[in-house]
Amino acid sequence: MPEEFEGDYPIRVRGLVNRFDDHVIHEGLDLDVKRGEIIGVVGGSGTGKSVLMRSIIGLQIPAEGSIEVLGRSITDARDDEDIDIRSQWGILFQGGALFSTLTVAENVEVPLREFYPEISEELRHEIARYKVLLSGLPANATSKYPAELSGGMKKRAGLARALALDPELLFLDEPTAGLDPIGAAAFDNLIRGLQETLGLTVFLITHDLDTLYEICDRVAVLADRKVIAVGTIPELLALDHPWIQEYFNGPRGRAAKDAQDREAASVVQATQDAATSPMEQE
After folding, report:
1. What pTM, to 2 d.p., does this model score?
2. Class of residue 262 by CB neighbours under 10 A (exposed 0-12, middle 13-18, buried 19+)
């Protein structure tokens, strides 16, 4: 079993350069992700959000720079070290990325078979069932194939697989894309609940402003080939960068902020009502 990471920054990126032929995606990119936070990653089209995630998890080899995950170098890792570190994160790709010929339970069992081939079939089935329930799917979803699932159910099944190994880090690539507003809000609440219950550090790529306002502790903004700012949304709104202002103060940004303000006001009102009702009864 890999040792548990005890540092404050499970993800550290320094001087990252990614290029494809002559096209430079990242140049001198730096980023620190705090332990136990949900960090949202935003940026315009072509800024390399997914390329950054792929670099962190070792699927993209950068031209320059260093990446440390859970205290270990990803850029210099040997094969045996790479296998060891990969068991400590889970990934939900866009659309769920499920194997179409496997049931939901069999999809969840894939990383268990890869990293823990010695465990019994019975235990593997039981772990898969528990992770499916943890993701918010009903127990009977374990025997279904991806073609039998809705878009939201596919994402939850992909999440169950990402959680199969009890990871410390969870990577999410546009998790609410394609979901209706109710489904997206429910998925946001699920992620926040899992983060709090399991103590996860979550790296979340999204365009969903509601998600940023509702569950992200900080937001990293990609522009000009690097991370130009990291902070809470109020901290970002205090900056004068044109993309940040257009993104968060545009019509959708204002709508998301208004929705959060209304929700906060309703919580305050409910708290006040609960505090005064016993006095009224007297």
Report:
1. 0.87
2. exposed
